Amino acid sequence: MRSPRRHPLLVPALLCAVAVLAARPTAAEGESGTEPGISAQVARLYEDASVAARQYEAGQQEAEAQRARAQRAEELLARERQDIAVLHDDLGRIARTQYRQGGGLPYTAQLLLADSPEDLMRGQRAVWQADLAVNNAVSKSRRAEARLAADEAKAQAEWQALEQRNGELAEMKRTIQAKLDEARSVLQGQADASVMAGSCRGAVRLDQPEMDATRAWVAPVETYELSASFGSGGERWASRHTGQDFAVPIGTPVRSVGAGRVVKVSCGGAFGIEILVQHPGGYYTQYAHLAAVTVDQGEQVAAGQWIGQSGTTGNSTGPHLHFEVRVTPELGSGIDPVPWLAEHGVQL
Known about the structure:
- By secondary structure, the chain is α+β, with helices and mostly antiparallel strands.
- It contains 4 helices and 10 strands; from the N terminus they run H-H-H-E-E-E-E-E-E-E-E-E-E-H.
- The longest helix has about 80 residues, at about 115-195.
């Protein structure tokens, strides 16, 4: 079952072609029993991919805005073209009128044909006025044509720059995603090997993100889709589903939903790599099918602290986090996590 709510990524106006992260998770010296840096590499690329996605989405939004501006500009340009056409018609009309009124005659011929000095002056005045009108119309037409050409060039340049920038963002997004997919595959392969051997690799130390100290409880993952719910049936489980599944990619940072103490870290059986945290008040939360853990048994954790990375170890058909809330440390004492989180101020 898919969640009716998907937490959206924030879309800040990040339009530069190269993502500069203020802080990137890094591995501590010597990840226990694993290739140095693979968990940290996944975490770093996960953040890079999020930034790239936000940049790309912002670029797409800017493209939509530019399309709207281009449409408005095209409407203005169309009106300018109509104005120029009217100016050209005016020029033709003035030229025809001037010709009919003798404006095209040489001055000597006008002297010979004039009936009186007054007629000559009136004729000359009409010719001067016609010449002035023609000159003004020509100047106005040339200015309008120059303005039209400049506006068309500006609109075309802005559009080409936007298309180039969006292409660069898309390529950056594809490159980071390809690296992330490769790193996730390596991370999951090492996790599967640990589960098959029944030997946990130990905690992988990653730099922690900034945590909101005003929140006592959070969702176990930041961005997700809800999948299998508590109590649902399925051939993968002996009876009913004992927790709430969050569909997330391999390597997604998993957070402790609240402050507590890690009472169990294991890597065998149906849950694969799992963590159990005891919280004040007697409740326990379980995080299963992980690819890596970032805490040790007995360690105190804070709300929102990264305690592991999601995976698909154990009895799992795809990448996700299996999350349980229990009243005892033992399997079978679980309660529905969704209303329990809601009671603690976390709406999924």
